[in-house]
Design brief:
mainly alpha; 2 domains; two-stranded antiparallel sheet; binds zinc ion
Length: 407
């Protein structure tokens, strides 16, 4: 009990100091959720005991909360436009974040988000800004427009159309944390914790990622994956070019969530450990992870077909097809993007294999090719100016699939 009172007092005391520093009152305190991360620099530099450290933590959190444009959520549009270290103007080393004063705007404009400054996918008009209560001259508005056009659009830093995507989630349930687009709602999505400040700090423990390379290498035989191949394959599980469906299948299988027959047979009497496809051909092979996603003759057949059809420059080996292509240390950006395409292709193939397996159906070559084609077309459509799209087109991957499909 005593501890609780003490903590609350301490929190109140800290809040008082922050209120003074930031010019806030308890009622306007939540405004800090709408500020750009650079606004906290002053308080951090004051080196106040505890507080400066916490605020630095929160600043880090702000920076990490922002995402790149993606088809799942709208955090990039909800990011504050002013004082944001990720939204800069100027040249080279002299790049600076924007401030309201630069456009003759008052301090209250600092909560405007990047998305607020666009309407109907165009920079907001002067009238619309004035209607929202922000007085701005014609010249200042035009200068703002110029900056906005430089920042957002195809081939620009924010390589997307400034339009909110529809978030896919159950409307009857609270929005899951990773789909919430602004810090204010994100913070109030937690049930536990008392003071709003405390909530922030409990959610910013840095994640240390420890990868058990031995465990992953234990999944394949006769071939070894390098630490880099395994790390890349785990990074690829966050790949923005594939939909979650593909990422989930692979991630479940890699992390041992998918049960294979050799495993199930241990504790289910009615399950045999043999691979069903091989059994149909009269061969008894125990079905484990590697057999199901790589060694099984029907999987091998599909993999070789995909490699030949697309003329892929890679070895068909467990370390490559299950994990990822090795990235040579001196590889150029362009070469890495080509390797990523191959990784993406094997990720799609793995999902098709695992899906057929769970549905107990045979893998159909035509479906494999049309699913590959669909996905490559989608990447080119959604990320037209990305290097990956350029490489998909220049290596004629879609054309090769189309050609095979009409045969
Ligand atoms: Zn088999």
């Amino acid at each position: 009990m005593g501890e609780k009172v003490c903590n609350n007092r301490l929190n109140d005391h800290w809040c008082d100091i922050l209120d003074t520093q930031f010019g806030l009152t308890p009622n306007t305190r939540e405004n800090i959720y709408e500020w750009g991360a650079n606004k906290f620099e002053n308080v951090i530099n004051l080196n106040l005991p505890c507080i400066s450290g916490f605020i630095r933590g929160y600043q880090e959190f702000c920076k990490h909360f922002a995402t790149e444009p993606n088809p799942r959520e709208n955090r990039w549009l909800s990011a504050p436009f002013f004082n944001n270290p990720k939204i800069l103007w100027g040249q080279g080393r002299n790049k600076k974040s924007f401030t309201p004063g630069q456009f003759g705007l008052k301090k209250d404009a600092e909560k405007l988000t990047l998305g607020d400054l666009f309407s109907n996918q165009k920079p907001i008009t002067r009238d619309a800004l004035i209607n929202k209560g922000y007085n701005i001259t014609v010249l200042q508005r035009n200068s703002l427009e110029k900056h906005l056009i430089k920042l957002v659009g195809h081939g620009k830093q924010f390589d997307a159309t400034p339009k909110k995507v529809t978030v896919k989630c159950d409307p009857n349930k609270p929005t899951p944390g990773h789909l919430i687009d602004n810090i204010k709602d994100y913070m109030s999505s937690f049930k536990k914790g008392s003071a709003p400040i405390r909530k922030i700090f409990t959610s910013i423990k840095p994640l240390t990622l420890k990868i058990d390379h031995k465990k992953f290498n234990g999944k394949i035989t006769g071939d070894k994956a390098s630490i880099n191949q395994i790390t890349t394959s785990l990074k690829n599980l966050q790949c923005k070019y594939l939909s979650n469906d593909y990422l989930d299948y692979k991630s479940r299988a890699l992390h041992g969530k998918t049960q294979f027959f050799s495993n199930l047979a241990h504790y289910k009497h009615n399950v045999q450990k043999w691979c069903k496809h091989c059994l149909e051909m009269g061969i008894r092979t125990s079905e484990d992870f590697e057999h199901a996603v790589y060694t099984c003759p029907q999987v091998q057949y599909i993999m070789h077909m995909v490699k030949t059809t697309l003329d892929l420059n890679c070895d068909i080996r467990p370390s490559v097809c299950i994990f990822s292509c090795p990235r040579p240390p001196d590889a150029t950006k362009n070469e890495i993007s080509k390797l990523l395409i191959i990784d993406i292709i094997w990720m799609i193939v793995m999902k098709i294999i695992l899906k057929n397996r769970s549905e107990e159906s045979r893998i159909c070559e035509i479906k494999v090719m049309s699913e590959l084609k669909q996905n490559l077309e989608m990447i080119v459509r959604n990320f037209p100016s990305h290097l990956i799209s350029h490489n998909i087109i220049s290596s004629n991957l879609i054309l090769k699939l189309k050609f095979e499909l009409v045969q």
